[in-house]
Automatic annotation (TrEMBL):
One of its GO terms (molecular function) is protein kinase activity. It comes from Phanerochaete sordida. Pfam families: Kdo (PF06293). This is Uncharacterized protein. It comes from the Eukaryota. PROSITE patterns: PROTEIN_KINASE_TYR.
Length: 328
């Protein structure tokens, strides 16, 4: 079928593109021409992103986002469309925005040469996150869930910045966007994500992107502190005396009581940040998270959550887990 997309981009000009039939949602099939009217330019870079309305006359327009790329960069939009319509098709509308179509054409540049232009049309949804401060743990779990589902579909995002995490107005849902750097990914994650568990090594966990993302969300408990310029395990240095002992001989020329006081202050700050978790994972020096199974997860609910089995272990209220957020 033939479908023409008119791009009305205000000061940025007008273009006419044709739909790529293999990447066209059923919503747009049956039309011969639709027009995108940009109301806001929301992003620049390798691609331009606009928010606006897609005119589906005689039907009502729909709110969409139009992502446009030129020349060699436009090839990446076709790769992105491929992911939306195949590996992640079942995630549209729940984990990623709904995808409406890929459109392709040419334009004449300032030198008079013909160059490629492509765009994808996506559902306009939510707003980008700007900070994790004061974000309750239940919402962080929702974000982690979304990334786990994307990896389960065989896709690695490769650019998990806050700007690429959208949140709904009532803050109950999230969507992940911007897959132009994404790649196919047979995820090698070897263990579940368990809330408040001691952070595993990347080698044990198996997937670097999920490991680093979950760590940044504050879902895991860090087991190291920096003392005298070195990282120390809190399991091996759970007291000021032990920390000072492990720091030797690389210690400054400073009285021992001063060094002990510095170590004690550091451990107090660590306990203030993570202390509410110790009843569920054990205090430093006696981690109990090894091999937590489904029964253990249920026993420790609602403070310890196996994200892979969220329906069984989700914290029951927003208020309860807000009190236990560890600031990043």
């Amino acid at each position: 079928m033939y479908l023409e997309l008119q791009l009305a981009l205000k000061k940025d000009g007008h273009e006419s593109l044709s739909a790529v039939s293999a990447f066209l949602d059923d919503t747009l099939r049956g039309y011969t021409s639709v027009t995108f009217h940009a109301t806001q330019r929301i992003s620049d870079g390798d691609s331009r992103v606009y928010r606006g309305k897609l005119d589906l006359s005689p039907n009502e327009p729909i709110e969409v986002v139009c992502k446009i790329a030129f020349n060699e960069d436009s090839d990446r939009l076709e790769d992105e469309a491929e992911l939306y319509t195949h590996k992640m098709k079942h995630l549209q509308g729940t984990t990623i925005p709904r995808f409406y179509g890929l459109f392709s054409g040419t334009y004449i540049n300032m030198l008079g040469k013909t160059r490629a232009i492509r765009c994808i049309i996506l559902e306009a949804w939510g707003a980008s996150m700007t900070t994790l401060k004061r974000v309750p743990m239940s919402r962080r779990i929702t974000i982690a869930e979304a990334v786990l589902r994307i990896h389960a579909a065989g896709v690695q995002h490769n650019d998990l910045r806050l700007a690429n995490i959208l949140i709904s107005a009532d803050k109950s849902e999230v969507r992940i966007v911007d897959f132009d750097d994404a790649s196919e990914h047979p995820c090698a994650r070897a263990m579940p994500v368990i809330l408040y568990a001691w952070k595993p090594t990347i080698a044990d966990f198996g997937c670097r992107e999920i490991h680093d993302f979950v760590k940044d969300l504050g879902i895991w408990t860090l087991a190291t502190v920096r003392y005298l310029g070195q990282l120390h395990s809190v399991h091996l240095s759970s007291t000021a005396e032990k920390m000072l002992k492990h720091a030797k001989p690389d210690i400054p020329n400073e009285p021992e009581d001063h060094l002990l006081a510095r170590a004690d202050t550091l451990l107090q700050k660590y306990a203030k940040r993570y202390g509410t978790r110790f009843p569920f994972i054990g205090p430093p020096g006696s981690p109990i998270d090894e091999g937590l199974d489904e029964a253990s997860c249920a026993l420790l609910e609602p403070k310890v959550v196996n994200v892979d089995r969220l329906e069984q272990c989700r914290p029951s209220t927003e208020t309860r887990d807000t009190q236990n957020v560890a600031p990043l």
